[in-house]
Amino acid sequence: MSIIVVHLYPRELGINGDVGNVVALRKRAEWRGLALEVHDHEIGAELPASAHIVHIGSGPVSGQEAVRDDLTRITPALRAWSDAGAAFLAIAGGWQLLGEELVGLDGAVVDGPGILPSRATLTTERWVGEVVADSQLGEIAGFENHGAVTELTGGAQPFARVTHRSAHGPADEGVIVGHRVGTNLHGPLLPMNPVWADWFLDAAAESAGVTPSVTAPAPVLGIVDERAAKSRDAVRGRLGA
Fold this sequence. Notes:
alpha/beta, 32% strand, six-stranded mixed beta sheet, Rossmann fold, single chain
């Protein structure tokens, strides 16, 4: 058995380096001795029979529009995976697409698959800059670059609480429900905050019934985690946190 990661629309939705999240999952699984397979899903392609982690990155409105029909086509599979306990990580534009609805600049409302309990409204204002926030796994850091106001629904909880940021914005960041996360943080998120990469891998390994093939993680994990911590320290320092 392997952990199956489905990466949705890497060509259209990956302008902020969010593929780094998938790379982080792949490499950390390797270093921890966890079998993992990545399936890049392109428009019109067939999905694998199952998934334990689904990743969708960010992209411009044109990229979102390009994948919308295909997203509608695969929505039943995404909902089935969600109901079965699959983890989801949706970044910025990808988060907007996986919510309950998305309101465009022209006011048109597009229904989403409802994988994440949120509604997004595109605006002409953009939020761009570095962010430090408190999450349930400790302090995280990243970079935001989005132009949407997102409302959480059904009493959903934010992914993190912003403590410092370059641009003025709301205190709550993202959404988390079970093992489904929507966030505006790039960096990419998982290489910058590897504790969350391991959180996704642990959930997926349990769901897939995958056990490590090694007795101890590779030493390189400590080096990578130290570098990630220095990156977060640099963001904190630039923000005066």
